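Work Package 3 (structural annotation) set out to generate three-dimensional models for the target panel prioritized at the project kickoff. During this period the team completed the workflow that converts sequence records into discrete structure tokens, so that structures can be stored uniformly alongside our sequence database. As a representative example, we reproduce one entry of 362 residues exactly as it appears in the project archive.
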Amino acid sequence: MNQQIRYDTALSYLEQPVNIRPSTGYPTIYQQASDIGGTFTRIKYGLPDQTVANFSPCLTAHKGHRLIAWRNQPEPFTFRHDSKYFYYNNTPTEVYIGELIGDDTIIGAKKLREKPHRLSYEDPRLFVTPDDNLYAQFITSSYASIYDSSKHTMVNQPKVCVACVDEFGNGVNAVYPPVGDNRKPEKPEKNWCFFSEDDQLRLLYSTIPLIIKTPGQQDKTIDSSSLKKVTGDYPTFNSTAPIKIGNEWLVFFHWKYMAFDSNHQITYLLYHLGAYTLDEKLTKITRQCTEALFSGSTSDRLIWWTDVTGRPISKQPACVLPFGGIYDEQSDSIELSLGVNDSFMGIFKCPLTNVLAKLEKI
């Protein structure tokens, strides 16, 4: 890969954002956070050295600690002669876990699964079970690896893996839960969100339709058709598990489609982030956004995908994705870990009232 592009990306945390609003397109992540009445702080310190990107973060509170897991991409994407792309040097993505100190520093960062592996590890989400144990779910996929064309049909689609996180931060006793199509060949599964409620472990399985699964109980399906007023018919997915806020639950979700940036003359995959609330008993949507809270911006850093000679071919998606969050009752505020453009990540803090002001009652 072109070394200038590689090191420019790896050392981008040294940049200081300038608050100049773009004349076209969506504002930067810093500006969008400010528009809601919050702040975004980029995580700069304690990350693995000389890697292309750190993104898809999940922030969770457990036993007095703010723990964070995220996806780490050691090597860039590289296009082959036939336009099929792979991770450079056949190095798939990893899931890391550590403790967040302040809003910009991680200590004790380590791989969730230390042993070498062939598959890409993606999209981690931490959750705490009713018996106060910490678990991690993540996706295993042959995406962009040399096994992407494998005849082993159980690995050529993304699957959800769940592991217990021990006292040393290791993901142990990993399994593929027999939920939905998770153990069916050729069937993809992802974007699950486990959470605890009423001493029960529950799973927010999908957004449209909104399905909540509980072991030993019948699936609960909640009418979420009203969300289509915002998302249209575009693919829509869970972002975070329900976050308890008083007598309601706050949930973030995302949708995506292809868009064209006239300023940079590129076609790219654009993500939007929205939110809704559920009643205390998880039976209905009580409020929902009328427009996106965050949108991926080409004014934030987008990583180039190149061919083997380093020639830029295309750019990664423009997205703002939180996979976890914390409600601080004392300050009545929300903390979300946001991944930006599959490139970098940080912490969004905002008074809860500001977020709820963006939602209309149903």
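The longest helix spans residues 3-10.
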